[in-house]
Amino acid sequence: MSEAATHEATRTYDVIVIGAGPVGENVADRTSAAGLSTVIIERELLGGECSFWACEPSKALLRPVIARADARRVPGLRQAVGPLDVPAVLAHRDDLANHWHDEDQVGWLNSVDVDLIRGHGRLDGPRQVTVHTPDGGTVRLTARHAVAVCTGTSAALPDTPGLDLARPWTSREATSAGEVPGRLVIVGGGVVAVEMAAAWQALGSQVTMLVRGELLSKMEPFAGELVADGLREAGVDIRFGATVATVHREGREARMTLADGTQLAADEILYATGRSPRTGDVGLDTVGLAPGDWLTVDDTGQVTAIAEGWLYAAGDVNHRALLTHQGKYQARMIGAAIGARANGEPVDDTRWGAHVSTADHTAVPQVVFTDPEVASVGLTTRDVADSGRRIEVVDYDIARVAGAHQFAEGYRGQARLLIDLDRGTVAGATFVGPGVGELLYSATVAVTGEVPLERLWHAVPAFPTISEVWLRLLETYRDRHQPRRKPATHSSPKE
Question: Which residues form the FAD/NAD(P)-binding domain (predicted)?
Fold first, then answer.
């Protein structure tokens, strides 16, 4: 179907999806595949934050940075590696973001028979949505079966005096800027903060990070420590325990005063201090919910506060896992669940059923694309106390694996498995080091599939690859529980 004309005042669909990022697109794809008439509403660009201001443009900035860092560790190659071609990096980023146009996304919607209405969609009572279109029109929609809110999140800014007039960067400006700032101050220590510090320092900025606590505070402590070492070696100035008291801008220069009285000046300030749900103006009040709140859902995506079961929420907006791939996973399950309910089919809501997002609780994978990389899935040691599970920690220095020496001279990295002692399975895995992102899917399969350790012994890693760290971790665990026996001594027979 083509983009829906907006002169029609009222329309009815089986399913209405608010938000056309990757999550909304996947919900719409699955409900359409189930034979349900579906419309999707978007006020900005189809493809959303991930395609234009987050995942894809940020990795386009980071890939040359990481590739150059890897090359500099290879004898015979490091001498040939020079500075980055900054205009070429930015131009490639622009190409991957399709120069902030979404025609290809519109073509994809047409191919899966989903209607599109551009405009600001708001709930207007049970199963009702009103869309205010860019041309000043209004379209009123009714859903026979479901409305799915897939509006994502936006940058959360603190209430710092002067910040509202200082024109700070958020993740959007950090991934789409057309020029390299001479001095960039980054406030925050999470994934966006460390990735953008790595990117812009390599592209020519002098980067200063202001971190109240620690880097990557939700991951294993050694992950933040190794990333901090890498950033410092690249030239980033990291200041821990720093709190911003005031901000103001004088012309092109931004000035900051820290709580201890320190003064800083910068060309740009990036605030990477968390995310807020985009639910402030989607009409939650018309169905008895509080605007601006996260939407709590069950494992099939139904908003638990709506007893009639017609309202769903997928992706960041439900606060389960603020990651694009995890939101798309939810969307596939939610779209299938909507289709099953609408078609009178049974809903498989068992633990690993076809209509539930169980992995939100057990196996959320994430890669931090810094130098070194961080890859993590499942539990960390920070989670163990709340898990109620008997966990044993197994660590191994990745630099001791033969494949690490092939990958880079002077390799530094760390691997950790969390073993569930009662189940005999892997409950979590974290890897830090160059190239470890490619280890993550195997770890995700092990955690999700609850593969017994006895079976993992038969998953043989190729030699010499970094994946051999799996064998070394298993050996470490085995040797801890099955100490080597000393060889028996045999006397010579008496004459």
Answer: 13-325
